[in-house]
Amino acid sequence: MADSPISGLPAVTSLDGTELLVNVQGGVTKQQTVQDTLNSNLPITSSGIISDFVDFNTTSSVTGKPGRLRWNDVDGTLDLTLKGGNVTLQVGQENVIYSYNNTGAPLLGTEYKAVYLSGSLGGFPSIDLADNLTRVASNNTIGIVTEDIGTGENGYVTTFGLVRDINMSTYAAGDTLYLGAADGTLRNTPPSPPSLAVIMGYVIDNSATTGSMYVNVRSGFEYPQYLVANNLTNHTASLANNETVIDFTPDLQSGISLIDSTKLTVTTPGLFEFTLDAQINRAASSGTASLYFWMKKNGVDVPNSNSNLDITGNVGTAARLLSKSLIIVLEAGDYVEFYWATSTVDMILKATVAETNPTRPATPAVKVNAARIS
């Protein structure tokens, strides 16, 4: 039979998959339907495919491998197996970042350590173990290690979404997980000041072997730092025109502490406000007295912090309330003290006990309020 020209063959209007194709395998000629040919997992190689849509088989049980995109019916999305084959990205439900391990030791995915971005190397972000004690290592926290990353090697960190197959047995499902004090560890209770609060995520499954956590890092939280202190006894100067440090007893303190009764000490850097109130009175004599109040930082006078008062009167009539506020920048470990001086030791900082008619609380000789404002 003579060959028929292609132009002489009938035109195909559509394919339904039942059409037969000739398939030669091992020298044997066979026939196979179009659908069977497509289902035989023959690779399709092309520099580009143009299609209106792509349908994935939602009942397929094919396993993942690097570069493979497949349907995940459990999570209801597509799975993309990433480089190395250890991490599978659930499309639209999580984010990861390929990072360089700069910790100096291997990172294990089973330990789910928190890491922060410390720099870059080779075009990739470098990571170190996060902690809640230093501002850089807490505010720059990016996520949870999600696979083994050798020393000086690259691997994936989950910045948002589920980290699976980890031991969550020490927590309860629904627990909020916070960044711990060292080595990228986590805790399920908020840290106390001066630690910085970083929310790492939440416990989803508290199993010991198949546990999971939902990573959703939020940093920058800081607990209020404050101190309220007073002195409920008369405060006197032993010599005229001689500096005298003011001592206090704390009522409330958080993040700002009172050391040696005089040093108002901060634990984190920032801008702080200190408000001093002093009840001034004359204990003896009469006439005019000059008083001075100022601040020292780490034992050195703070420029322009002095206040001068001239008070004229007799015993019991020469009284005045001093109230002054100072704002100052301090570093972690810095402390401030308040000093006063008087031209005559007859002037005191006077305290009074609780009284009646009307009933009223005690009056401190001096009190101070301190707060971190930024």
In short:
With 374 residues, the protein is an all-beta fold.
How would you describe this protein?
The chain is mainly β and 374 residues long. It contains 2 helices and 27 strands. Strands 16, 18, 19, 21, 22, 23 and 25 form a 7-stranded antiparallel beta sheet that branches. It starts with 19 loop residues before the first strand and ends with a strand.
CATH fold call of the largest domain: Jelly Rolls
The coarse silhouette is rod-shaped
Largest sheet: 7 strands, antiparallel
Number of strands: 27
SSE topology string = EEHEEEEEEHEEEEEEEEEEEEEEEEEEE
* Overall tally of structural domains: 2
Poorly predicted runs are none
Computed Rg: 37 Å
Helical amount: under 10%
**What is the overall pLDDT average?**
90
What fraction strand? over 45%
What is the tally of helical segments? 2
Q: Any idea of the CATH class of the largest domain? A: Mainly Beta
Corresponding CATH architecture of the largest domain: Sandwich
Class per helix and strand makeup: mainly beta
Distance between the ends: 94 Å
